[in-house]
Specification:
- The complex is a heterotrimer.
- Chain A has six helices and seven strands, in the order E-H-H-E-E-E-H-E-H-H-E-E-H.
- By secondary structure, chain A is of the alpha/beta class.
- Helix content of chain A is about 30%, strand content about 20%.
- Chain B has six helices and ten strands, in the order ββαβββααββαββαβα.
- Chain B has helices spanning about 20-25, 80-95, 110-115, 155-160, 195-200, 225-235; strands spanning about 5-10, 10-15, 50-55, 60, 75, 135, 140-145, 165-170, 175-180, 205-210.
- In chain B, strand 6 and strand 7 form a beta hairpin.
- Chain C is an alpha/beta fold.
- In chain C, the strands form three sheets. In chain C, strands 2-1-3-4-5 form a five-stranded mixed beta sheet, with helices on one face.
- In chain C, strand 10 (about 350-360) and strand 11 (about 365-370) form a beta hairpin.
- The chains are: A alpha/beta, B alpha+beta, C alpha/beta.
- The interface of B and C includes residues 87, 126 and 176 of B.
């Protein structure tokens, strides 16, 4: 059987979902035997490649880089999984949405609470600008499967991945779809 | 009292004539999901989760306020009903800011449990993200409108069990809001007896004890029913 | 009050009539274009011309062609002056003496007037709504007298049943059946409610009736109360209708003075009182259970039915609720018989229907036509089609609960069943005409916004579902929606329709559904392509 081309990405989130992914411990070795990890925060690939079979997306779509990337991912990936509550619901990342603007959040974080150099970062081309409205991934592009949880426990990740890798229609139900 | 016989999900069920479909189903061990229903508090049929199908009747009927009728064939979980229920829960999640991960009720929330039971792995509707307040003016309790599902269980509890009439609904449509007195801060209320029954009634993290943090807000769901049974039937059953 | 007195009032009133009558419309439409000043100017002009003994200036109700107001009609010449200004009044008064004038005259033989059949509106524009004597002179309260003195309550119910009258509030429930249900209940108290909470955008039928002929509605209510055994009535009228409220108050006071309300109506053992309740501006209070909650002083929210009001209504007592136009049909039915009424209209929709014509149409105003009149007759002949050579594209009936009927279906007769078949409803009688410049998606969005704003917020599908449907319609309008969004919109329509608690939510999707049915292309043209993704073929690997 061909090896599965797997990617994981980290958008607007805390990386907790990736930490949970690493909690798969020795099962990761089993997974490594079945897949090639072609793009991920934990490997050194700079460009999202073509023809990816499966991509786990952690985080919400929070800035213009995220937005561009998520479209590119969709174009180049067969199966997308919203990985964790931020990707599925917007979660904590989207808690600024009621403010409708980014300015109060940036001001609070970088000016009012700054210990040194109080200023809002503005480095065009380096620091991506925030979107006024943080979106769940499926609000931007179609997503095949959802893996809720903040973070999704390792066991839950394994259930989904093993189903996918084995070519079974993934089915998460009961407590496995519990958000939070 | 006359008995009625009907079938619920193909199962023959006997019920007292003044029972609702919800009660008859419950007695027969058939679970119908609810949200605005709370044992001991009068029903309003507002959340629409308990809608059921009855053969020969065009409309869907809310099980919580529909009395049993002889010979009815009731279906509680057709594909269509399951689809509608999931949509109700999705609409609730999209309507306000339900961030389970940082909610006091995480792990003890009826809305969260409903999401699981209706198979809601994501919300297909765009989140509305309204800007809403948290009232922390009361010495003992807090009210977080971000988490409110407007089930009015707290309002009915306040009026009909405690008899204080502090809580009410103001505004309409999506702008509806639970208020205390005439929309004054809860802490300034002259009618609130600080009995805490509303907090016990709340299905989500909208009403909570001050000082609790994420996932700590547990409550005794049976307590209101205990009070009402004791009061009306003079039976002190824990 | 006894029959002799009633006849005497009528004769006195007729005897006091003068040779000429100038009828000046003082209903809200004309008043808003300065009709009160016209009336004052007419009074002054008559006085200055020294014609006080020959000419009566009478303030009356609606004379139908609202777009041409202020309207003044001259009897017996049968002339209708349009867009009358106070400065025109000297010349207008002079016309009774045969002095020709350059004033704008309406054509009373035009289809707009010719095709009308006035039953509900028979007194509108003729009687002075502020004077009970004027109503009595038009045989007002004669039906009530006959009913009270010559019929049993059961006979009245049978009469209404025979007439085939159906509720004019929109749903078309058989009136006789409703009355019979309330009549059969045994209760020490029963109530009669007149629903005058007319709220559909573009609808002003009930307002016109109340402003033009309030006594007719009161008489209908008293007859109903006698038939079902009620002793207390309420008229629930929206605060946005101050003139209607004022005329109703006057009418109730006069009816009491004449012993037509209160204890021993027409010196029979029957007692009945009416109170006015003013709605605070919530559309949902037109829904009967919300309306009753509001009368009781509670938050105006619907509750699940059953129990129906006929069984458990106001304060738990059996309650009859009918709409203004329904009650206004009762006195003529009582006078002329159920068979007479049943002879008008179609097989299943009897009598006439009042419509408020509005939108992109030449003749805006109030019409009353027999049930079964083709829509085309109404909008093209009577309404004069779209103004400025426009093309009629669709007709919206039933307000936010109704649907848009495309021009291709204009030969449909207006009756309850035919309109329902087209995905619309008869509704209370608002009829909004749209021309080729109208964007149908935007029409659906407008009505959805209305429902979203007016949802009471009690049940989830209506409160949150209308918000999402509106959001999706906005997205379509902004060219940001994809076919996925359209599918979601249709799924929501189905869900909100089938799961909402009351009629507001259950019918809120109708404007979307009917525009999707007849104008789907307009939606499709606004859609965005879906985001690019690899072909649907499964990848080579073992992944599902």
């Amino acid at each position: 059987m061909d090896r599965l081309r797997l990617a994981t990405v980290w958008l607007g989130g805390c990386s907790g979902c990736h930490m949970s992914f690493l909690d798969l411990d020795e099962w990761l070795l089993e997974l490594a035997a079945r897949v090639d990890l072609v793009y991920s925060p934990i490997v050194d690939h700079k460009v999202y490649p073509d023809n990816v079979d499966l991509c786990l997306i952690e985080g919400a779509v929070a800035n213009h880089d995220n937005l561009e990337l998520v479209h590119r991912i969709r174009e180049r990936t067969h199966v997308l999984v919203s990985f964790g509550d931020c990707a599925v619901t917007g979660n904590v990342t989207a808690m600024r949405n009621p403010l409708r603007k980014t300015e109060p959040v940036l001001k609070r974080a970088y000016v009012e609470l700054a210990d040194v150099l109080p200023r809002i970062p503005a480095e065009p081309g380096i620091v991506p600008t925030l979107l006024d409205r943080v979106a769940a991934v499926h609000e931007i592009v179609p997503v095949e499967y959802y893996l809720p949880g903040c973070p999704p426990p390792a066991e839950r990740i394994r259930t989904l991945l093993s189903q996918l890798v084995e070519g079974r229609e993934p089915r998460l139900n009961g407590g496995l779809i519990k958000p939070g | 009292m006359a008995a009625k016989t009907l079938t619920i999900d193909g199962q023959m069920v006997g019920a007292a004539e003044d029972q609702t479909i919800l009660e008859a189903a419950r007695d027969a061990g058939i679970h119908i999901p609810t949200l605005c229903h709370l044992e001991g508090v009068q029903d309003v049929g507002a959340c629409r989760l308990c809608l059921v199908e009855v053969t020969g009747i065009n409309k869907l009927l809310p099980a919580c306020v529909t009395k049993v009728t002889e010979g009815w064939e009731v279906r509680t979980s057709s594909e269509r009903l399951q689809r509608y229920r999931r949509m109700v829960v999705e609409l609730l999640f999209a309507e306000r800011n339900h961030v389970c991960a940082v909610c006091v009720a995480n792990g003890h929330c009826e809305l969260q449990n409903l999401a699981v039971s209706v198979g809601m792995d994501h919300v297909r509707f765009d989140y509305q993200h309204p800007r809403l307040d948290v009232d922390l003016s009361h010495r003992l309790f807090g009210m977080d409108h971000n988490r409110c599902v407007l089930c009015t269980r707290c309002v009915r509890t306040c009026w009909y069990i405690e008899g204080a009439g502090t809580l009410n609904v103001a505004g309409r449509g999506e702008k509806s809001k639970i208020i205390t007195d005439l929309n004054a801060p809860w802490g300034d209320s002259t009618t609130c007896t600080s009995c805490g029954k509303c907090v016990m009634a709340c299905p989500t993290g909208a009403l909570f004890y001050r000082g609790v943090t994420v996932a700590e807000m547990e409550r005794d769901r049976g307590h209101l029913e205990y009070i009402v049974t004791a009061r009306e039937k003079k039976q002190w059953i824990v | 009050m006894v029959l002799e007195e009633l006849v005497q009032i009528k004769e006195q009133e007729l005897a006091s009539r003068k040779k000429f009558t100038l009828r000046c419309c003082l209903a809200a439409g004309c008043v808003s274009s300065n009709a009160q000043a016209v009336k004052d100017a007419l009074d002054r002009a008559v006085k200055e011309a020294g014609l006080e003994n020959e000419v009566e200036v009478r303030g009356v109700g609606c004379m139908r062609l609202c777009c041409e107001g202020p309207l003044v009609a001259v009897d017996p010449a049968e002339v209708l002056f349009e867009k009358v200004a106070p400065a025109d009044c000297d010349a207008l008064v002079a016309t009774v003496k045969g002095v020709p004038s350059q004033l704008k005259q309406g054509d009373l033989t035009a289809p707009f007037f010719k095709h009308q059949l006035s039953i509900v509106l028979e007194n509108c524009g003729l009687v002075d709504p502020d004077r009970i004597e004027s109503y009595i002179a038009a045989d007002g309260y004669l039906a009530l007298r006959n009913v009270l003195r010559e019929m049993t309550p059961q006979e009245v119910v049978q009469l209404v049943t025979r007439s085939g009258l159906r509720g004019r509030g929109g749903a078309g429930y058989p009136t006789g059946l409703k009355w019979a249900t309330v009549a059969k209940t045994t209760s020490s108290r029963k109530f009669v409610i007149c629903n005058a909470d007319e709220g559909d955008p573009g609808a002003f039928m009930d307002r016109s009736v109340l402003e033009s002929d309030p006594h007719r509605v009161i008489e209908g209510m008293i007859i109903a109360a006698y038939a079902v055994g009620a002793d207390q009535g309420f008229i629930y009228v929206r605060a946005e209708y101050p003139l209607a409220i004022q005329r109703l108050q006057t009418a109730i006071r006069q009816a009491k003075q004449y012993g037509l309300l209160g204890s021993g109506v027409f010196e029979s053992p029957f007692n009945f009182n009416i109170e006015i309740r003013i709605g605070a501006g919530a559309f949902v209070c037109g829904e009967e259970t919300a309306l009753m909650a509001s009368i009781e002083g509670r938050r105006g929210q619907p509750r699940p039915r059953p129990p129906f009001p006929a069984e458990s209504g106001l304060w738990g007592h059996p309650t009859l609720i009918n709409n203004v136009e329904t009650f206004a049909n009762i006195p003529p039915i009582a006078l002329k018989g159920g068979e007479w009424f049943a002879g008008i209209g179609t097989e299943r929709s009897k009598g006439t229907k009042v419509f408020a014509l509005a939108g992109k149409i030449t003749n805006t105003g109030l019409i009353e036509v027999p049930m079964g009149t083709p829509l085309r007759t109404i909008v093209e002949e009577m309404g004069g089609g779209a103004p400025e050579g426009g093309q009629i594209k669709a007709v919206q009936t039933g307000g936010p609960s109704g649907g848009c009927i495309p021009a291709s279906q204009l030969d449909t007769p207006v009756d309850y069943e035919s309109l329902a078949k087209l995905g619309s409803i008869m509704g209370s009688g608002g009829m909004i005409v749209m021309d080729q410049t109208t964007n149908m998606v935007d029409v659906a969005r407008f009505f959805m916004e209305f429902c979203m704003d007016e949802s009471c917020g009690k049940c989830v599908p209506c409160r949150a579902g209308t918000v999402q449907m509106h959001h999706l319609l906005r997205k379509v309008m902004d060219r940001k929606a994809t076919s996925r969004d359209l599918a979601k919109l249709e799924e929501l329509c189905d869900m909100v329709k089938n799961t909402s608690l009351c009629g507001l939510g259950q019918t809120a999707p109708n404007p979307v559904l009917s525009t999707l049915r007849y104008f789907r292309n307009e939606y499709l043209e606004l859609l965005q392509p879906a985001p690019k993704q690899p072909s649907a073929a499964a990848p080579a690997t073992g992944i599902f």
